[in-house]
Amino acid sequence: MRANTLIQAYERMALIRAYENTVVSLAGQHRLPGTCTSIGQEASAVGVVSALSSDDLILTNHRSAGHLLARGADPARMLAEVMGKSGGYCGGKSGSLHISSKELGVVLTSTIVGGELSLVTGVALARTMLGQAGVVACFFGDGAACQGRFHESLNLAAVWKLPILYVCENNQWQAFVHRQETMLADGVVGHAAGHGIGGSRVDGMDVEAVREAAEHAISRIRETGAPHLLEVMTYRLRGHFEPDDQAYVDPAELARWRARDPLVLLRRRLIESGMADEADLDRIDVEVGVRLDRAVGVADASPYPERRELTSDVYA
Amino acid sequence: MEMTVNDAISAALAEEMRREPTVLIFGEGVATKRPDLLGEFGATRVRNTPLAEGIIAGTAVGAAAMGLRPVVDLLFVPFLCYAMDEIVNSAGKLRYMSGGQFSFPMVVLAMTGTGWGVGAQHNHNLEAWFVHAPGLKVVMPSTAADFKGLLKSAIRDDNPVLFFTDLALGYTAGSVPDGDEAIPLGSAAIRREGGDVTLVSYAKTVHTCVAAAEALAERGVEAEVIDLRTLKPLDEGAILRSVAKTGRLVVVHEASGMCGVGAEIAALVAGKAFHHLRAPIVRLTGPDAPAPSSFALEQAFVPQADDIVTAVEGILEDRAAPVG
Fold first, then answer.
1. Distance from C-alpha of B251 to C-alpha of A177, rounded to nearest angstrom
2. Under CATH, domain B2-175 is a member of which superfamily?
3. Where does the Dehydrogenase E1 component domain start and stop, copy by copy (chain A) (predicted)?
């Protein structure tokens, strides 16, 4: 990747990290409800989303902040949503777990594990039938891959030839259970062959590798119209749902993955390659911090929804 | 013209697919069993699917959000248990949860009810579950004309609609008006007028109520029969107006009683028409038991006209009792 692209990736990943740290900190102060963070998965979000074009769509899940921010979401509107404010992307009716934004092309988020897998086939079908170009990316975790819907979705997408990029963010954890307890295979990419579709796996801590793998998968989908399963090997560096002391996590495993923190790896690469120096990256970190502080202020100032919103938008 | 309920459903599907190019239909065996639709509209809009109710329903939800108007056939209502997440959590909630960004114009077709003898995993009247879930509409017609007119409205509606066919009605025939007539959702029909007692029902047991009303008429009792047609939205006005006139209410349905539609109607009348009531409200429902497959037990499961006559006679005896 070229220097400016890679620096942009760093900036976006730093924004995601700062956003998630802000949410964790605000949750700790009881200024908003607990949430599922995507800390550790920033390279996956930025690598895949930056490989999409603006007319491609995204479906995501409860661990979605990275995908939204990578797509250009406004952190102030996200924070307002998490705080239950009317200025949030969904008017405060979603909270942190199901933010969607039609204007950003991030549609139909589900927090039911695997829910997005059941919806993505219809989104892709509609685009195909309405003659709209574009790929639909669907983010889910290794936990969702243990649901039956995973197979139902891949099977139907394969049979109907739907242009879907299935992105399994294998973060090694399924809520409070390590995936080694729930699957014998070392991951999910093997299921692609079983459904007769393309599959690939990539190091999810390396944003360049993720971007390259996603670009390759997306160009295959655009050429063939058929779905593809991309497994991104990453790690959930924090607990399932904040606050979470991670007492159930093997400290040695956590330390191994922390040493491969995607922001640390990218920082090192940028400096070692001469694309940026410490000061450049520190400046980005500061700018991102300022942006988040401002976003908290905007979200705080947003009013709560009017009482009449309780029963609005139930029916069309 | 005269046609069966099944033909009325087919006619509604064909007319709406002709009228609106974004309407499509898919499900297990849909293309196989509907060659006329397949021939006219092609394999893109008339699709067979794998036997996987969850992904069928989920695909409809996703497609509806993005501009299509899917109709899915999930065959039998108990099979919807495999699709509850998609119907209840996604179709019913994601409009609200997204702050109104998306709408879900989709129809779920399924059959249910006694009459086929195939047992409780094909026959389970679960309509109350969906009435209870926000964001969904529920339709259970009783006549061929209503099947056609209400299905047309269901397809045109911008909300997810559960459209259930009482399978014993599939081959019953009725007069269906020619033309493009859609019957609005949320409007009950009075099948028979009367001033002594109100019988409220929907689907197959509407006909049982009409039979009971005819038997009662021979004894000088005039029963009014209300066919709800749509369970959600519920036509409260039609129920309350009738009870204001008759002062007596019997609710009849095949689904079991506890937390059923009849309980809601009883609560509605007790709350809003209490001073009109001259006798206790009666509910006649199926038992708290899975639907049996044995014909003899199946018949025992369903409220029969004789049961309704007996129930009405029971509350008419109270006619002599002083009020208040």
1. 50
2. Thiamin diphosphate (ThDP)-binding fold, Pyr/PP domains (3.40.50.970)
3. 12-306
Helix-helix angle A42-49:A3-28, to 10 degrees: 130
Answer whether A140 touches B (CB < 8 Å): no
Of A121, A122, A166, residue with least CA distance to A144? A166
CATH architecture of residue range(s) B189-320: 3-Layer(aba) Sandwich (3.40)
B122 flagged as catalytic? yes
Q: In the structure encoding, which two tokens stand for residue B221, read together?
A: 């009792």
Active-site residue, B124 included: no
- Residues 110-139, chain B, touching A (beta carbon < 8 A): 134-135, 137
User: What interface predicted TM-score (ipTM) does this complex get?
Assistant: 0.96
Q: How many CB atoms lie within 10 A of CB A316?
A: 14
Q: Does B84 touch chain A (CB under 8 A)?
A: no
Rounded Cα gap, residues B264 and B157, in angstroms: 24
pLDDT per residue of chain B (324 residues) written in tens, 0 to 9: 999 999 999 999 999 999 999 999 999 999 999 999 999 999 999 999 999 999 999 999 999 999 999 999 999 999 999 999 999 999 999 999 999 999 999 999 999 999 888 899 999 999 999 999 999 999 999 999 999 999 999 999 999 999 999 999 999 999 999 888 899 999 999 999 999 999 999 999 999 999 999 999 999 999 999 999 999 999 999 999 999 999 999 999 999 999 999 999 999 999 999 999 999 999 999 999 999 999 999 999 999 999 999 999 999 975 555 544
B28, B122, B254, B298: the active-site residue: B122
